[in-house]
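Contributing new records

If you add data, match the layout below exactly. Sequence lines come first and carry their own label; structure lines follow with theirs. Keep one chain per record. Anything else will be rejected by the validation script.
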Amino acid sequence: MGSGRDTAEAVTAVVDAYFGAWQRNEPDVLPELFAPDIRVEAPLGPLEGAARYQDSLIRLFDLAGELVFHKRWIDGNDVLTWFDLYPRGIAEPLPVASWLHIAFGRITHVKVTFDLGRLLQAADPRRASNGTEPTRQPGPSV
């Protein structure tokens, strides 16, 4: 078995395909990009396996609007991307840092960080379609 060291062009192609799938809302592209035993570390907790990560991203794709990329750092097989995710229904972007490790042309490890509270706010079904806060019902008097 080789070292898993991919060329800079191959690493860039995998990352471009991954984020391209996000931008086009094409989750069916993802399995060919993931190693079967991919490991993911994210604010909602760790995930293992390509199918579980794809399922997680499908839900995220439903919330995600535009992605605006600020910077990408490539160091061998490691890629760090800083971008803003604009969740549907929220005017303010969600800053995201995503670290991907690529080996043998597939993503094998993901570490991602973002403000989980703001993402959950975007997913709140009580949220009005105009992006305003849900109406709070008064609680019981104490």
